């Protein structure tokens, strides 16, 4: 098929076909319906107990109190639905970002479009490492090696070669040109004409689909089990308290209410919600910073990273290649003025893809923009054979039919190209000197060679004598934001290593321009391979620049840094980078130039391929981890006084302090506080000025549980103290209960603010706006419960004296805020916990 036949569809044709065939997706992931969310919520133990208490009131108690409990349960369900919808929106945004893209020809122009927009008739450009996005026919390119195990279960890859002119729709399974959606291109590159999309593909016919949902992390699984166990304990306590109350006091109705109150107070049902919200919204926040989370558990690891191993091209540099220099026959040449330069560029073009995807191929195309079509047309239009880049030969070789013979063009690493050419020693030294000079300018340098061969095919380029033509140098500017990001990483105690396939001198110059530590010199891939793991771990203690590194050597570097005790984040984009990405603590794939193999092996996908986004992701990961830890500590801490004041007065023979409606009100405060206030809390200004935490430090471990127990215990003592003081001084039971409840509500809010805010943030900073809104609503409800007769009767509260209320507020501020005050007086103290 000619290049004209591969021009692709027009925009109008593609739009019309998309309406007919629909998006190229196997199955749309639909959010849960409202009724599904409500029914799922009603199955939670917390709401089962609430509804049981409401039913008990409605049957044998007060109608108003029963209706209030039902209303409170409805509000709680509404909060859960709101948070669920918020998480669903975040997940939907993540799924959209996670959708694959495809390189297509549309109206003769190469475009990058979402794979969901592919339609039959589109021409797709495929390179190795990509997952094929739709069923189609190979129209041009290499002989492809394709892994079809996802479709057929066969582990042996199959070969596919270009069709000889099949029309769309004539694909049969036995056709050697047929390719199928969901399979992986292992080797080669080519142009595929799409024949079927979406559910009409072979993969769609067997009903396979990916949901793209954020997975449950080990912490979510653990807390889910914890809530199940606590639910069982709550049921046991409910029955014991109800039975003891009924037998000892003869009031079974009050016993049932007391048992249900204890059961509700024992359940920290906020744990699963907090984790789900933080992970979903946290993943969404990271995506807004160009970091797509593929495995939610990695959020817990980001803040512990101590070593960032990053590629040079496209990460530290702009990946905007420009052909900047040509060297041949002992001199740098002007491509516009010198015929020899034009010949070097022509051979380099013949060693490039006809439809360029690689940035250096694109740069060669751009340099010869006026003559590209003529060069390819004079050479037969398409290469007759291609030897792609391989670890064993770091060069691309393509054969072209020119006249009655065949010309082979090679382009790649200078040392690889020189091995193909039998140069004299003097000529080799001249090339090496020119290479060193160009590399010292920070240019990425490739060698170019050709071979005129009467044979139309060769089995191995190394068996053919090539003529060295020259060197070409590409300029790739440093990203403007790299210097600031490097400074931030250093301040955060994170080392940065640059790993590149470039020439060592080029690597050092680019590293120097970027601001990396070059004092340890450069280490090459061959040196890495020559050392054992222990020796390599010692050698890399000071070296941060690695050049001429192959994918298997990347894996060795990951293991060596891990041996030293580093928590490693590794970037990668190629097929063979997958093992290193999997072995790193945090694998980061390139979203723009990375292969599907790399993306599927990685934990994170960098949407803009920028180093600054990696550092920004670490910063945001530290914020998410810190806020999630605070939220979990707060939930555990506040349940200590709630459970204590629900149970202890009964054990001590005092009138109950809490009834179900009190716990409902507290839950209506706790839920938005822990899922809205803590999640939206901004980063501590000093977060990126502290060293990384230990990777072995749990999110919610012994220290956090101890802190929660101490904070909750102090608040419990204050609540019980005020309640007992009220009863001992002769206050009516409702007034004493009001004092205890004031301390519990106000102490709850003060504890939340104390836990959420950093020592460096003013209490009335606008960043705490969400907290103050929630606090104002809670204060209004508490005031109404004390002053509105109807509500006072339902809550069984009566307003004590103004002096007593003032004392209760002071006590609650001290009991809930002592830890926060201590941190503000001694900010270093906050690191203890």
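Sequence proposed for the structure above (833 residues):
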């Amino acid at each position: 098929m000619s290049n004209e036949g591969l021009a692709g569809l027009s925009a109008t044709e593609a739009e019309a076909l998309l309406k007919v065939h629909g998006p190229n997706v196997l199955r749309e992931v639909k959010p849960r319906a409202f009724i599904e969310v409500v029914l799922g919520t009603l199955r939670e133990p917390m709401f089962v107990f609430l509804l049981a208490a409401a039913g008990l009131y409605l049957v044998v108690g007060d109608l108003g109190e029963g209706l209030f409990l039902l209303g409170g349960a409805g509000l709680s369900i509404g909060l859960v639905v709101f948070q669920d919808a918020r998480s669903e929106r975040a997940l939907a945004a993540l799924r959209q970002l996670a959708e694959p893209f495809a390189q297509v020809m549309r109206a003769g122009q190469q475009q990058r479009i979402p794979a969901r927009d592919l339609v039959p008739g589109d021409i797709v450009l495929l390179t190795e490492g990509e997952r094929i996005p739709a069923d189609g026919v190979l129209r041009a390119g290499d002989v492809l090696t394709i892994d079809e195990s996802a479709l057929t279960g066969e582990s042996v890859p199959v070969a596919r070669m270009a069709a000889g002119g099949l029309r769309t729709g004539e694909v049969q399974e036995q056709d050697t040109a047929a390719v199928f959606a969901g399979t992986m291109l292992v080797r080669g590159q080519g142009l595929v004409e799409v024949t079927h999309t979406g559910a009409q593909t072979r993969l769609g016919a067997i009903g396979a689909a990916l949901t793209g949902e954020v997975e449950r992390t080990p912490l979510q699984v653990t807390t889910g089990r914890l809530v199940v166990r606590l639910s069982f304990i709550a049921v046991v306590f409910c029955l014991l308290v109800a039975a003891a109350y009924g037998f000892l006091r003869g009031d079974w109705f009050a016993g049932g209410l007391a048992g249900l109150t204890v059961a509700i107070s024992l359940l920290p049902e906020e744990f699963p919600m907090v984790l789900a919200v933080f992970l979903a919204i946290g993943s969404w926040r990271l995506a807004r910073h160009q970091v797509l989370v593929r495995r939610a558990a990695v959020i817990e690891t980001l803040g512990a990273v101590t070593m960032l191993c990053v590629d040079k091209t496209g990460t530290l540099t702009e990946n905007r290649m420009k052909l900047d220099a040509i060297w041949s026959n002992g001199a740098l040449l002007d491509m516009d003025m010198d015929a020899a330069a034009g010949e070097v560029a022509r051979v380099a073009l013949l060693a490039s893809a006809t439809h360029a995807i690689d940035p250096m191929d694109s740069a060669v195309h751009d340099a010869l923009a006026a003559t590209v079509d003529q060069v390819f047309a004079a050479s037969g239009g398409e290469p007759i054979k291609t030897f792609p880049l391989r670890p064993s030969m770091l060069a691309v070789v393509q054969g072209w039919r020119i006249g009655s013979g065949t010309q082979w063009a090679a382009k790649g690493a200078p040392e690889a190209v020189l091995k193909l050419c039998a140069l004299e020693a003097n000529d080799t030294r001249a090339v090496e000197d020119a290479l060193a000079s160009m590399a010292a300018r920070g240019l990425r340098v490739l060698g170019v060679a050709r071979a005129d061969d009467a044979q139309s095919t060769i089995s191995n380029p190394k068996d053919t004598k090539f003529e060295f033509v020259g060197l070409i140098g590409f300029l790739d500017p440093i990203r403007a934001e790299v210097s600031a990001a490097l400074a931030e990483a250093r301040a955060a105690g994170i080392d940065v290593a640059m790993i590149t396939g470039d020439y060592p001198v080029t690597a050092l110059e680019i590293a120097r321009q970027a601001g990396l530590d070059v004092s340890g010199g450069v280490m090459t891939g061959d040196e890495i391979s020559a050392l054992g793991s222990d020796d390599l771990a010692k050698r890399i203690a000071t070296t941060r620049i690695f050049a001429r590194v192959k994918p298997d050597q990347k894996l060795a570097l990951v293991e060596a840094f891990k041996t030293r005790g580093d928590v490693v984040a590794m970037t990668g984009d190629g097929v063979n980078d997958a093992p290193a990405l999997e072995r790193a603590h945090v694998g980061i794939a390139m979203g723009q130039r990375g292969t599907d193999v790399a993306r599927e092996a990685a934990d994170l996908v960098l949407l803009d391929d920028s180093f600054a986004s990696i550092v920004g992701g670490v910063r945001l990961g530290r914020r998410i981890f810190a806020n999630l830890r605070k939220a979990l500590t707060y939930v555990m801490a506040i349940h200590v006084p709630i459970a204590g004041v629900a149970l202890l007065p009964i054990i001590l023979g005092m009138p109950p302090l809490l009834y179900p409606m009190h716990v409902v009100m507290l839950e209506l405060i706790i839920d938005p506080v822990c899922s809205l206030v803590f999640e939206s809390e901004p980063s501590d200004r000093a977060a990126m000025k502290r060293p990384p935490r230990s990777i072995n430090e749990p999110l919610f471990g012994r220290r956090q549980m101890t802190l929660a127990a101490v904070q909750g215990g102090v608040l419990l003592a204050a609540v019980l103290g005020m309640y007992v003081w009220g009863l001992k001084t002769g206050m009516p039971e409702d007034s004493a209960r009001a004092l205890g409840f004031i301390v519990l509500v106000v102490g709850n809010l003060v504890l939340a603010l104390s836990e959420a805010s950093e020592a460096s943030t003013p209490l009335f900073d606008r960043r705490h706006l969400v907290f103050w809104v929630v606090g104002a609503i809670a204060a209004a409800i508490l005031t109404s419960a004390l002053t509105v007769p109807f509500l006072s009767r339902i809550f069984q509260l009566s307003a004590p004296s103004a002096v007593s209320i003032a004392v209760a507020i002071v006590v609650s501020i001290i009991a809930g805020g002592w830890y926060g005050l201590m941190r503000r007086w001694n900010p270093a103290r906050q690191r203890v916990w």
